[in-house]
Amino acid sequence: MKRVIVSLTSDSNAMRECIIGVFNYVNAGHPWKIQIVPDPLGYTNDGMNPKTIDEAVKCGVDGIITGLDVYTTGFRRLVTSGIPLVLNSAPPDWTPPKGAPITVLHNDDLAVGRMGAKYLRSKGSFRTFAFVPLGRKCSWSTLRNRGFRIELAKCGIMSQTFRRNRITMDEWIVSLPKPAAVMTATDCEAINVIETCRNNKIRVPDQVAVLGVDNDMLYCCATRPQISSIHPNHIEMGRRAAAELDRLMQQRVPSHKEIFIPPIGQIERESTRTIPPSGHLIKEALSYIHSHCQDGITVKSVARHVGTSEALLRLRFRTTHGKSVRDVILESKLEAAKSLLKKTDKPITRIAEECGFSSACRLSHFFIERTGRSPREWRTLHPDHLVASSRNVALSGEPPARYPPERPSAPPVQKE
Question: Mind spelling out the 3-state secondary structure of 202-257?
């Protein structure tokens, strides 16, 4: 039975899922005697310090699964110990010693960043795209930011990066041109962005859409709105690490290439969910307005129909359609009124009622404002209903009506 040390932190969802992946491999018919060391190698001296590694060598430990993205004394001792080793992360630009039984795995963090950029672009027309990195210098956070910027640059979009040493989070969030799409290195950072927005009365997702990484349920579901997140495949990373360690312990042949585990996808929640693509939103809103303009609809009822807020709907119309929602509703009512004025001889009061105007006076005011003429004057200049009436009369054989209709003359007085 192989003796294996698994030294992965248990204080993050990512590493807990990696541990699950390791045990999924073991429980599938690979009996190992596993020792869990909850503190990653080198972060503190309570974990696997150089002395502990020497003891592991003496005790005949067969393999180790761990990960560390910074250099420490313990890390240097570990990679030269000769113990078969799988690292799920490593310091940037580090390469294993030649011939050492070591395999390095990574989340494909460039792909994580690219996926985040593609997803946010699909959610609407934003004025700003921005990335919030981890608070400390970290290679995988840098790679996620790089992937985010690369994907946006392909579309000619420049992204911003939050720099803590230059500006506070409050100042930065307030200064972003809205609407803005913000991706963060982790779900924890996403909470910080959402709370900053709340404190500054900035609506999420109407004004700032927020996307995290890791799909950590503790963070994603704790706040309101709940956080949308890119889901790396940490369980597969743990399973693959165990499979690689099994191979190293049997063959002691190192992997010649680093292994990258692609993300699963994005998990959509409230922090981005209500933002439909702007083109689709405008198209759906216009269709609804044109179909229901005579039903007394308002900006609120249109927003409710398309599933977004009034503020975002107004913003999308101004930036994409070039008109306000109210103007489009009134113009649709006007076109309906014009159609009735041209094709029928219905009274102005009746037309105003059928087209959703509060009164004939309101219809007249709007007509004069937009056309420079009253409804009655406009009808006189566009008498299509007279043509239709004449056509119908010709078919029926009855004499055509005159417009305006003549008042019936008084009956002749009979002389006695």
Answer: CCCCCCEEEEEECCCHHHHCCCCCCCEEEECCHHHHHHHHHHHHHHHHHHCCCCCC
Q: Where are the domains of the chain?
A: 2-106+234-265, 110-232+267-273, 278-394
What's the pTM value of the predicted model, to 2 decimals? 0.65
Neighbouring CB atoms inside 10 A of 98's CB total 6
**Domain spanning 2-106+234-265 has what CATH number?**
3.40.50.2300
Closest C-alpha to 378, from 413, 334, 412: 334
Given CATH 3.40.50.2300, say whether it is the number of domain 110-232+267-273. Answer: yes
SS3 category, 136:
coil
Check whether the bond before 404 is cis (ω within 30° of 0). yes
Are 2-106+234-265 and 278-394 equal in CATH topology? no
**Interatomic CA distance for residues 197 and 182, integer angstroms:** 11
Per DSSP, 6 falls in state E
- Residue at token pair 């959402």: 194
Record the tokens describing residue 112, joined without a space.
């994580």
Cis peptide before 179 (omega within 30 of 0): yes
Read off the pLDDT of residues 208-252 as tens digits, 9 standing for 90 and up. 999 999 999 989 998 999 999 999 999 999 999 999 999 999 887
Give the burial class of 346: count Cβ atoms within 10 A of its Cβ; 0-12 exposed, 13-18 middle, 19 or more buried: middle
